[in-house]
Amino acid sequence: MIRRPTHSFRPALLAVFVGSLFPVAGSAQSDPVNLTAVFRSSGVDVADLQVYQINGIVLIRGTSADKGKAENAGIVATKLGYPRVANLIGLSGAIKDVDIVRFAEGSLVRQPALEGCKFYIASVNGVVRVGGSVYREIQKDVAVDLLRKIGGVKEVRSTLKVL
What we know:
Elements: H1 9-21, H2 25-28, E1 33-34, H3 36-41, E2 47-54, E3 57-64, H4 67-79, E4 85-91, H5 97-110, E5 118-124, E6 127-134, H6 137-148, E7 155-162
Parallel strand pairs: 3-4, 6-7
Antiparallel strand pairs: 1-2, 2-3, 5-6
């Protein structure tokens, strides 16, 4: 009977090879570097600006109502020589009419005092028009008051009818 030698070192060698492909997570991490002052001095004008470099990636956070200013932060990062940039600046201020309508519909549906009422809502440039039917006069007031409290709403025009 011929005995073949066992190669028990193969799995160990494979484990060492695979382990060398993936560096230990803790050793790959570096401390974040605050670059906020550098970006501010380079002309980035964004509210609540925070810029950090972590593991070669520049993270940019803040808020702006101007899309151009938000995009400029990424351009500045590239010009400063940072190839990997995560521009997480959120746009604020401008609320779209479709968002107003969606939020208005949700607010009216969730209001227990308006259960069973039917509403039709439209918004153009923040002017909300609400139509439909309610059961009591006070429900008209509740609906209009709810709509006035929504961000981005400039005016509410009601054609609600009491059944």
